[in-house]
Amino acid sequence: MNDSENTLIAHLAALRCTLLRGVAVTAFLYPVGYLISPYVINALVQWSFPKSVGELHYFAPMEVFRGQCNFYKYAK
């Protein structure tokens, strides 16, 4: 029975190390991703929709819904 307890404790220790490593990497990479995200998004937009094609107009996810609500509010 001592061997099975040792393997359980070893597995729990390995799980703890893995979870701590995952939390540490996530805590480190969130600020890095936050800082570089505008540059990455701009690069992707320029790559997928070059300036020679025209101008790209895009909206926030709720902006169109708010505009429709305002339209219906004043359309009475």
Tell me the layout of helices and strands.
Blueprint: H1 2-48, H2 63-74
Describe this structure in words.
The chain has two helices and no strands. The mean pLDDT is 84. By secondary structure, the chain is mainly α.
Low-confidence stretches: none
Overall mean confidence score, pLDDT: 84
Q: Helix amount, in percent?
A: over 70%
Indicate the overall shape.
elongated
The string of secondary-structure elements, in order, is HH
Radius of gyration: 25 Å
- Please report the number of helical segments: 2
Could you give the count of β-strands?
Answer: 0
Report, as a whole number of angstroms, the end-to-end distance: 78 Å
Largest sheet: none
> DSSP strand (E) fraction?
under 5%
Estimated structural class: mainly alpha
Task: List the defining traits of the structure above.
mainly alpha, 76 residues, elongated, 2 helices
Summarize the structure in short.
The protein is built from 2 helices and no strands. It has 76 residues and is an all-alpha fold.
